[in-house]
Amino acid sequence: MNVEQTLIDEFRVLADGTEVPPPPDAADLVRTAERDRRRSSTVRLGGTALVAAAVVAAIVLGSQVGKPDAAPRPAHPSPSFDAPGVPYLYKQRLYVDHEPRPGSWFEVRSAGRFTVALGTDGTAVILRDGELVQRIPGRLLVVRLSRDGSKAAWIEKTGSRSGMLVVRDVVRSREIGRLPLDMTPRKHGGLEFSLTVTDAGVAFYDINGVEWRWRPRHGAPTRTDREPNDWTSYADPADFDVDVHTSIRWSPDHLWGAWLTDRHGQVVEPGQHDSPVQDGITVQKPNDPGSRFTIALPDGADGSFVSWDSPTVIWVQVRDGGDMFACDITTKECHVAKRDLSP
Amino acid sequence: MALRSATRPDSATPTYEEYVGTRWIALYRTAYLLTGSHADAEDLAQATLVKAYLSWSKVSAASSPDAYVRRILSNAFLSSRRPLRVARERLVEAPPEVAAVAPDGDDRLVLWPHVRELPPRQRAVIVLRYYEDLSEHEIADVLGCSPGTVKSTASDALSALRRQIAATEGTS
Q1: What contacts A9, CB < 8 A, 6 or more positions away?
Q2: I want to staple A185 with a disulfide (CB 3.0 to 4.6 A). Which of A191, A202, B74, B110 is the partner?
């Protein structure tokens, strides 16, 4: 076989036969680009953390090879890794204190003293210290806990094109609110969604690339400033005593929030075309104003977007695709992590 | 129609909107060959056009806007620190796209499945060389490396493809 000629032929066949979707609306691209001037979406959150978690999981799961019946150690990348009573998932089985529980499970997440487990049949349970406190019937698509475990939120499918978002206070064991959702699938492709909930009970949900913020009992949901496919995780401003919810990014471990500030230490509202120079990153633990500090960006580095790369390192994109900086919250210093991204 | 065009006179300088409309298909096709996925191709092509807008004064002033945009596309593809579609947790109701749907004649595409398994930089070199029909020097300019690096990268890629084909034929 003439590999080179075959490549030419196959690429031609593929390219000519590829069904190309309609071009995007140029106006939409321009709007996205204008926002990128202030906060580029090129930086993705938490890659290192996800890889690290995957590695940990792979190591743990790999250690079980040849011992299918053994109760595995928890593949839980949290500080409570070996804490008794922290449930975990292994081969679709739910383990509590290393003992398997009945049923087939799809996903298990823990925060604080609480755990949510989503079954393969679409029902879910909420556990406290490993003990059942509530069963959630229905056909759930996703269930999440807030950072401290005090709030839970889930999305239930109620029809072919409809769903219901429910937010619950699991500490007080009472529902905070529920919101009907339009869950019409995309014309070409399925339904994509995600969900997070804050300790204050604010739900951030995304359906087919559009993110909404909903605070139960405070009216209708509102669109966030997030761009499609920008998967940064946002924090609740109430936890940080700042006034711009779209500016604050959780660290991967949800222990810190970070946002860009101007030279006066003020948060700059994203979306302002004439936003002032943003030359510092302010970092704070939630509900702990005393932990707040600001890392100065290098001279001339006008930040446009922040994203966490690990629990201690923040990436800062600067305007117009310039150098990217990595800022370490332990040393409170920044250095160039990647040279000018523009060609 | 690959993403290439001859140097054009100033009088033919397109607006950004015109460029999006006329070059989308070519851009998408190249993106598809790079990513091997329709979903990622669309993301990559759109991200490239967004970046092109941010540098439009340079793009439109370039002797070949397509060459400039090709650099943006290649850099965006190679600088993706993770696959575009798994950048963050994303849940889907139905199983995700597991493989690109090839056009008719799929069973005759003996190399394409192996091209998709190449490391990104090797794949980029192969696509730029055998689809975009660029020379080693042009590829080096696109990727910001030396022609020698392009040559060795292409050689590695072709060797890998030959090994895969030999292995496939050996098992059939």
Answers
A1: none
A2: A191
Strand-pair partners of A26: none
Asked if the Cβ–Cβ distance from A191 to B93 is below 8 Å, we say yes
**What rounded mean pLDDT belongs to chain A?**
73
Please judge whether A42 and B91 are an interchain contact, meaning their C-beta atoms are less than 8 angstroms apart: no
Q: What is the dihedral of CA B29, B31, B33, B38, to 10 degrees?
A: -80
Q: Residue B171 CA to chain centroid, in angstroms?
A: 31
Name the residue among B24, B30, B127 with its Cβ closest to that of A23: B24
**Do A44 and B33 make contact, defined as CB atoms within 8 angstroms?**
no
Q: Rounded to whole angstroms, what are the CA distances from A277 to A37, A272, A319, B129?
A: 12, 12, 10, 43
DSSP SS3 for A211: strand
| pTM over cut 0.95 | no
pLDDT at residue A251, as a whole number = 75
Residues in chain B with CB shorter than 8 Å from the CB of A23 are 20-21, 24-25
- In single-letter form, the type of residue at position B111 comes to L
Q: Quick: pLDDT tens for B41-77.
A: 887 888 899 889 988 888 888 888 999 999 999 988 8
Examine the predicted complex and report whether its ipTM is higher than 0.90: no
> Can you give the pLDDT at residue A224?
66
Q: What is the mean pLDDT of residues A196-207?
A: 82
CA distances from A174 to A142, A150, A151, A171 (A): 19, 11, 10, 8
Top pLDDT among A91 and A39 is at: A91
Helix or strand run (H / E) with residue A296: strand A288-296
- Shortest Cα–Cα distance, B49 to chain A (Å): 7
Residues 6+ apart with CB under 8 A from B145: none
Chain B residues within 8 A of A142 when measuring between CB atoms? 91
pLDDT tens, position by position, A49-106 = 333 333 333 333 333 333 333 344 443 333 333 455 678 877 778 888 778 888 888 8
What's residue A278's pLDDT? 63
To 10 degrees, the CA torsion angle through A237, A243, A247, A250?
-20
B105 Ramachandran zone, left/alpha/beta (phi>0; psi -120 to 50): left
Task: Indicate the residue type of A124.
Answer: A
Q: Which residue among A24, A45, A185 sits closest to B46, beta carbon to beta carbon?
A: A24
CB contact under 8 A, B75 and A33: no
Spell out the alpha helix ranges (H) of chain A.
Answer: 3-17, 26-38, 47-62
Å between B12 CA and nearest CA of chain A = 19
